[in-house]
Amino acid sequence: MFIRNSWYVAAWSQDVNAQTPLGRTILDEPVVLFRTSDGKVNALEGRCAHRGMPLSFAKLDGDSLVCCYHGLTYAPSGACTRIPGQAEAPAHIKLRKYPVTERYGAVWIWMGDPALADPATIFRCELIDEDGSNGTQYYFHVKSNYLYINDNLSDLLHQAYLHNPSFGGNTEPLGETVPAVTEDSDSIRVTWNWDDVVPPPMFAELGRLGARADGWNHSFYQVPTFYINSVGFANAGTGARESALPQGSGKLTFTIHQLITPETARTTHFFKIVHFNWPAELMTRSDRVITPVNLEDIWACEEQQKMDEQLPNATMALLPTDRAVAAMRRAIRERFAQEQHSIATQNPEAVRV
User: Fold this and answer.
1) How far is CA 229 from CA 116, 154, 217, in A?
2) Domains 16-99 and 136-334 share a fold
3) Which 3 state secondary structure label does DSSP give 128?
4) Where are the alpha helices (DSSP H) in the chain?
5) Contacts from 139-142 at CB under 8 Å and sequence distance 24+?
6) Among 46, 204, 214, 285, which is disulfide-ready with 199 (CB 3.0 to 4.6 Å)?
């Protein structure tokens, strides 16, 4: 169940160049990305129209893409401009061209109706500059359906248990809080606050916290696959998230912009842009709060995917903290139904499952 009328991150901007095409699968469709001599990013169907050769193996000849198999040449528009041994290339031989744009240091692609591709609707990474220069990039390839990642980010009860190793222990008390959940038409806010608790050792060490601290994880979700998590701890009684204490001296906080791009029904591209605003000496240790935590999340999602394939008809029990998960899944089902209805109205044969 993929939402197609949405902007997704296809790649980091620095990974797309004018020398080597970059192949990606997005929403089960092969895509090839490359830059032309004017620096613009182009995205075409990643399969040669002749014999289906992946165009990630093509050669860039100026602004044209030349298939490595039989030499068919494609313009950035997707039109075939040359077939070896023929005077002209038939007009019907062409590739689909996808709308693309760059923002926050990433290439965004629109997989649905091109007429609806308005860059103004790109998910807003609220703390990141337009060029992405004040954010730190992370990418993970996850061998699970994207909905398991959405579930993971919607129900943060797991941070009290799954992240006990990466947080350095003492995380179980974090699970005793009931979060506040607020739903809107296409977004969900989940607020976890912890008052006057013993901070997990990782936060205590990096933030140089006292014996007691106030903590928070405030989550914002937007359909279909985007989250912002503001996470941190500050010395107890100093204002929590609004504490004026310096980063690394009684406070540690960061904001993660989570950009999830479905690859296939069983695999996902997971992009993150993290805003730290930490002093330089603390930034040398910033990876400690991201990679170990995410490897735990990825492990859990991949194990769930395996179990889902083993027992595809098994049911799942709902807990009170699953309210955001249920709301997220419902919002995606509703958006998918709306999209399919719109497609069916215009072209009944084009409805996807």
Assistant:
1) 28, 10, 6
2) no
3) coil
4) 146-154, 164-167, 201-207, 280-283, 291-310, 323-346
5) 139/12, 139/269, 139/270, 139/271, 139/272, 140/270, 140/272, 140/294, 140/298, 141/263, 141/267, 141/268, 141/269, 141/270, 142/267, 142/268, 142/269, 142/270, 142/298, 142/301, 142/302
6) 204
CA 26 – CA 29 distance, rounded (Å):
5
Q: In sequence order, what are the residues at sequence separation of 6 or more whose Cβ sits closer than 8 angstroms to the Cβ of residue 88?
A: none
Q: Which residue has the tokens 């989940």?
A: 190
Residue spans of the domains in the chain: they are 16-99, 136-334
pLDDT tens-digit map of 263-289: 999 999 999 999 999 999 999 999 999
The whole-number average pLDDT for the span 255-270 is 98
**Contact in structure between 275 and 254 (CB atoms under 8 Å):** yes
Fold for the domain defined by 136-334: Naphthalene 1,2-dioxygenase Alpha Subunit; Chain A, domain 1 (3.90.380)
Strand partners, 108: 9, 101
Instruction: Tell me the torsion sign for CA atoms 196, 201, 202, 206.
Output: positive
Q: Read off the pLDDT of residues 308-353 as tens digits, 9 standing for 90 and up.
A: 999 999 998 888 888 999 999 999 999 999 998 877 777 666 556 5
Task: Give how far the C-alpha of residue 3 lies from the chain's centroid of Cα atoms, to the nearest Å.
Answer: 14
In CATH terms, the fold of domain 16-99 is Rieske Iron-sulfur Protein (2.102.10)
Q: pTM above 0.90? A: yes
- How would you class 27 by CB atoms within 10 Å of its CB: exposed for 0-12, middle for 13-18, buried for 19 or more? buried
The vertex-351 CA angle with 41 and 308, nearest 5°, equals 85
Concatenating the DSSP letter of every residue in 228-275 gives EEEEEEEETTS-GGG--SPBTTTEEEEEEEEEEEE-SSS-EEEEEEEE
Phi then psi dihedrals of residue 150, to 5 deg: -55, -45
